[in-house]
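Our consortium's second objective concerns turning raw sequence data into structural hypotheses that experimental partners can test. To show how far this objective has progressed, the report includes one record in full. It was chosen at random from the queue rather than selected for favorable results. The single chain below, 128 residues long, was entered without modification.
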Amino acid sequence: MVKSKEYKKIMLRSLLWPGWGHLYAGEKKKGWILFTLTLIGLVLLAWGAQLWLFPQGAAVKEKEVNIDEEGIILDEEVDLEATEEVSSAIPPPSPLSIVLLLVGLGVPFWTALYGIKDSRRLSVKKGV
């Protein structure tokens, strides 16, 4: 019979960090595998988000400003049409960033679901 207190402890640990519930229940190998997969998934998620938010080679408009010796701006060349185009033109996400985001979201989600699903079996195995 499963004691709900032990089941809840294992399930909560698996939900907070997949693999932690397995480690708590004594299944070291499976626990470390899930723990590592979750970490890899979160790293891929961060990498994909970084590629999505800060794409390489994004257009940056520089403007020329002429300043005299006293630090006063003499004239400033600003092309308003070009500035609007550059600021409103957000490049589409790269396929690599989309794949990394999907894998980065999917792996920790899958490991958490697996850990929660497996927590009933673990609480019976632990025998508490």
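The partners drew two points from this record. Residues 95-126 form the longest helix (32 residues). Residues 14 and 115 are 5 Å apart (CA to CA). Both points have been shared with the crystallography group to help prioritize constructs.
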